[in-house]
Request: fold
Amino acid sequence: GIKNVTANEPFFPGHFPGHPIMPGVLILEAMAQTAGVLAFKSIPEEHQRKPVYFLGIDNVRFRKMVVPGDQLRLELDVTKHRQAIWGFKGKTLVDGKVVAEAELLAMLGEEI
Reply:
């Protein structure tokens, strides 16, 4: 996944005034959404009406700050897939350098 971080993001004025930094929780949210898309696109088309639910996150590490003008590159790999449960290992990079990494867990729900 790719996320272009712009100065007009609504969270920057308060995080932190005069020194804008993208909140870590939003970097993790971007990773979780990318993992959800990966799980969704990895299942057969006839099951793609199932929602993907976020279950948990472990081993989170933030390595560098993300600031306006950065482009996040979200790289996730499937580490586990048993029935409805999916595990992922992911990292987020800016200019080829890791800014965050985490392990995520998700579940496919019932068809909607």
User: Anything to note?
Assistant: The first strand starts at residue 2 and ends at 4. The chain has a mean pLDDT of 94. The first helix runs from residue 24 to 42. Strands lie at 2-4, 52-62, 71-82, 85-94, 97-108.
